[in-house]
């Protein structure tokens, strides 16, 4: 990526550090780590770093280091799953909030208040798509939680069903972001 492309894809606090060419401040790093999405991204980086190192040592036939880095990879994989436990609650709350707002707008329309304004109609479409997006993300995270509980032997549900549910929920929530 060029520096201009990197700037447009990063949050403002990272863009400002790129623009000024100064190292990231500790406060900026803490902002990233204090957001659930930021923690997930950092954990994901380490998860795949350990996976890469496990692969390198596997190819070099260094069994001890391969086993060590495979263990780190799996530990970070499970850590990410645990951090996702509360994500479903957040998405359910967002979905219900959007749905409530949508319901209020539809009741106004039902009461005879005409919605001529293109902006209001656009807002209705936006709330509808957001409620679908957050609802299906909530289903995605909930199914992911079920998969974790299944792996921990807390539940005994068919994994194929859960994995299929995860795929459909992710697909529908991703498609609803397009609109």
Radius of gyration: 22 Å
pLDDT < 50 runs, ≥5 residues? none
How many helices? 8
Helical/strand content category:
mainly alpha
Question: Would you kindly provide a written description of the structure presented here, covering whatever features stand out?
Answer:
83% of the residues lie in helices and 0% in strands. It contains eight helices and no strands. The chain is mainly alpha-helical and 179 residues long. The protein has helices at residues 3-9, 12-20, 26-34, 36-59, 63-83, 87-110, 118-151, 159-178.
Q: Characteristics of this structure?
A:
179 residues
What's a quick, concise take on this entry?
With 179 residues, the chain is mostly helical. It contains eight helices and no strands.
Q: What is the element layout, followed by pairings?
A:
Layout: H1 3-9, H2 12-20, H3 26-34, H4 36-59, H5 63-83, H6 87-110, H7 118-151, H8 159-178
Helix pairs in contact: 1-2, 3-4, 4-5, 6-7, 7-8
């Amino acid at each position: 990526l060029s520096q201009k492309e990197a700037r447009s894809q990063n949050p403002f606090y990272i863009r400002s550090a790129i623009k000024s060419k100064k190292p990231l401040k500790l406060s900026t790093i803490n902002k990233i780590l204090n957001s659930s999405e930021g923690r997930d991204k950092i954990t994901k980086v380490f998860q795949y770093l350990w996976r890469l190192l496990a692969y390198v040592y596997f190819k070099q036939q260094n069994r001890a280091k391969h086993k060590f880095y495979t263990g780190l990879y799996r530990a970070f994989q499970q850590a990410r799953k645990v951090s996702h436990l509360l994500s479903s609650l957040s998405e359910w709350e967002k979905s219900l909030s959007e749905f409530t707002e949508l319901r209020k707008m539809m009741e106004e329309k039902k009461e005879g208040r005409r919605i001529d304004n293109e902006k209001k109609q656009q807002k209705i479409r936006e709330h509808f798509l957001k409620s679908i997006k957050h609802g299906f993300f909530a289903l995605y995270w909930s199914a992911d939680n079920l998969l974790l509980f299944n792996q921990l032997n807390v539940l005994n549900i068919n994994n194929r069903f859960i994995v299929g549910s995860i795929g459909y929920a992710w697909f529908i929530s991703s498609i609803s972001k397009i609109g």
